[in-house]
Amino acid sequence: HINNHYNTCFWMLVKSGKTEKEAQQTLKGTFSEDKNELLSQQFQVNYEDEPAMFRKGSSVYRDKVETKVKTDDYGNPIKRIRLAITVSNLDIIGPEFWGKHQYILQEGKYRYEYVKKFDDIRRLPCCNWIVVRISACQFDKFSLIHSFDKPNDETALSLMNASASLMMEQFPDIIFGYGFSNEYSFVFQENTELYQRNERLILSSCSSWFTSFYMMKWKEYFPSKELVQPPKFEAEVLCYPKPKIVCDYLSWRQAECHNRNQYNTCFWMLVKSGEDENKANEILKGTLSKDKNELLFQRFQMNYNNEPAMFRKGSCTYRQKVSCAPFTNYFQQ
């Protein structure tokens, strides 16, 4: 309607002698009633009398029509309702047409079929190692609310490790997990068909299961501390075609663990010694690994290499081959 209304006025003006630019200028900013008035006054045209096909466009649909299918023994016609393809020029804006033709959108099995088209399923490429990295959202706030020790809370890290172990039980296709601080990476075997490699299902399932395990194990690791605020974990997925790239990824995460922990160890030692946080950041700005080691040793008589390995290197979760006693001696262990 809008396009045809404008074009009808535009070409009537052009045909009357105006240039196209003059016609555009005349119609600039006009409303529907202005165009109707222009057509009526200048050209004695009633827009409503224009062919419906111009004003309303064409609708093609299957309409219910009564059709004679045969004749009974007395010569009376027997009619049935059939769907016939119909082309009409009518109003489909508003409820009137759709109220009279509800069957168009509600015909049997096709009623909801279109909804499936909105389900955008991304399959992760085959012959790739899938890595799902889970990390806590707003972890600084969460650790503050629950009074975690700085720079590392050993109990909180142990809780993360316990959750990771349960993840490996829940998902047998996970072959290795690596975590530190507030994140954990899980490597799925190359040929996994978990959820038919549906990216969305893998991500949502891993993040929800890890969150559930973390909350389920909370009381075991913090028996005297209430879970005031539920944890929130998000997940991202990565695909690597070669084992070497997977190893390089894990090496990168461990290097990140070392860098973060060394910085945080220095930072919180400075803060606990009386420096404010801004001053501590300023002292550490631009320092290298050896500078931080020297700072810890000279100011706090601390050898960084003597810090617990879980803080410095992170934690690895995997299935290890262990020798078991023979079945006959099992109950003697």
From TrEMBL:
Q: Where is the Thg1 C-terminal domain?
A: 1-93, 245-322
> What's a single GO BP term from this record?
tRNA modification
State whether keyword Nucleotide-binding applies: yes
Q: Report the top EC class in one word.
A: transferase
Query: What would be an example GO MF term here?
Result: tRNA guanylyltransferase activity
Gene Ontology CC: nucleoplasm
UniProt entry tagged with the keyword Metal-binding: yes
Cofactor(s) needed: Mg(2+)
- Cite the tRNAHis guanylyltransferase catalytic domain residue spans from the record: 112-241
| Superkingdom | Eukaryota
Record key words, sorted? GTP-binding, Magnesium, Metal-binding, Nucleotide-binding, Nucleotidyltransferase, Nucleus, Transferase, tRNA processing
**Reactions listed under catalytic activity:** a 5'-end ribonucleotide-tRNA(His) + GTP + ATP + H2O = a 5'-end phospho-guanosine-ribonucleotide-tRNA(His) + AMP + 2 diphosphate + H(+)
Family statement: Belongs to the tRNA(His) guanylyltransferase family.
What is the stated purpose of this protein?
A: Adds a GMP to the 5'-end of tRNA(His) after transcription and RNase P cleavage.
What is the name of this protein? tRNA(His) guanylyltransferase
- Tell me which species this is from: Aegilops tauschii subsp. strangulata (Goatgrass)
